[in-house]
Amino acid sequence: DGSILVGDSTYFSPTISIRIGDVTDLKCFNPLTLSLDDIQTNVLRKESIEINGKSYDAYVILSKTPIGEMTCWQANNGDLLKVVALMGISMIMEPKNIAMSMQPQMDAYMPTDDLAVMTSAQTNIDIPEPRKVNKLLIRFHGMKEKSFAITDSRQTASFSDGEVPYAEYEISAALQDYAKSVSLPITDKSLTKYLEDTPYIQPSNPEIKKIAEEIVGGEKNAWKAASKIRAWIYANMHTKGNIGILRSSVDVLHAKEGVCRDYAILCASIARSAGIPSKVAAGLIYWRNGFYYHAWTEVYIGKWVPIDSTLAVDFVDATHIKLSEGEATDMFCSIRTMGSLKAEVISFKHLADE
Questions:
Q1: Among candidates 40, 50, 41, which has minimal Cα distance to 20?
Q2: Which residues contact 204 (CB under 8 A, 6 or more apart)?
Q3: In whole angstroms, what is the distance from residue 261 CA to residue 32 CA?
Q4: What are the backbone dihedrals phi and psi of residue 74, each rounded to the nearest 5 degrees, phi first?
Q5: What 8-state DSSP symbol labels residue 266?
Q6: How many Cβ atoms are within 10 Å of 229's Cβ, its own excluded?
Q7: 208: Cβ contacts below 8 Å, ≥ 6 apart
Q8: Would you call 240 helix, strand, or coil by DSSP?
Q9: What is the pLDDT at residue 65?
Q10: How many whole angstroms separate alpha carbon 349 and alpha carbon 333?
Q11: Confidence tier at 242 by pLDDT (50, 70, 90)
Q12: In 2-151, which ranges are E strands?
């Protein structure tokens, strides 16, 4: 009640009066999280802008959203003329005949890099055999928000908001001991929310329950059960890197293909169905020549531990750096860091070095 609801985070409704200097709090429905996002808009100035050879008088509006800032040019009648969004991605209004005739634009447009490459954090040194790294000390320059400096039993993080902000992470990865795992069922009421259904993680779905029973069987050791789930997903899923939408665990189970977040969501769903509290973690992982955005799962076995069903083994190396944790949609907050990070590897060790 009392909120101003807009249909899109990039522009004002034509029914809202616009004046230079106005700062307005709005709400916009987010179809990914199935919730209302808080949007703050600031009308910066008015200027003339040329689009497709035609001049328009436009308001320049800065929109602050949960995933970052966007600058929008909006005509007096409410038409959205241009948006400059995250990572310099731009959208420009075009007449339908131009938009539907792609050949002239495709001839003129040359993309710079694959999005994953463009948003990766390049390093000062290479890390050989990253999947065997069990100790890592690293600093990410350009990390502007303290909320991404997450500390847990595996990862210690600190944040500096100086002239060039950065976050420093010290990660210690270890093989988990089956003997130290709790037994199923886990009855700690503080963990109940990590066993429940959400829009994308659906442990009570009959198909998810059936596959969880087939995988886990009568296993009561929580870590052994989680290991079986990881192994099954790794063996039965296939990587398909061009899936851009967030999908539910049931959709992923049907398709048995997807990107890392699909693996993580399915793993969390099956684990919850088996009675293992679980959540989705997202952040960065070292691969080839830099740190790339990645998602995996964390399960509770007496303590929270990572498990990555995109890998063939249970060991989750120390180049997995967590920036967010929780439900499937929480991973999108890390979008605010994309394209701004540079990695400084201070030190690392491999399992064989110990």
A1: 41
A2: 197, 273
A3: 14
A4: -120, 130
A5: H
A6: 27
A7: 202, 249, 250, 253, 269, 270, 273
A8: coil
A9: 87
A10: 30
A11: confident
A12: 5-6, 23-30, 35-51, 54-65, 68-75, 80-84, 90-92, 121-122, 133-141
Rounded to an integer, what distance in angstroms lies between the CA atom of residue 325 and that of residue 220? 26
Give the pLDDT of residue 8: 74
Distance CA 234, CA 229 (A): 9
Whole-number pLDDT of residue 110: 61
What is the rounded average pLDDT of the residues 280-309? 96
Q: Give me the chain's average pLDDT, please.
A: 91
Distance, in Å, from the CA atom of 48 to the CA atom of 69, rounded to the nearest integer, reads 22
Q: Residue 101 corresponds to which tokens in the numbers above?
A: 């005739």
Q: What is the total residue count of the chain?
A: 354
pLDDT tens column, 16-36: 678 899 998 989 888 877 788
Which is nearest to 329 in space by CA: 207, 198, 183, 176?
198
Q: What is the pTM of this model?
A: 0.85
Residue listed under structure tokens 């052994």: 224
Q: Measured between alpha carbons, how far apart are the two ends of the chain, in Å?
A: 59
Q: Are 249 and 274 in contact (CB under 8 A)?
A: no
Q: What is the pLDDT of residues 244-257, one digit of tens each?
A: 789 999 999 999 99
Residue 279 phi, psi (nearest 5): -150, 165
In sequence order, which residues have a C-beta less than 8 Å from that of residue 330 and are 6 or more positions away? 280, 282, 324
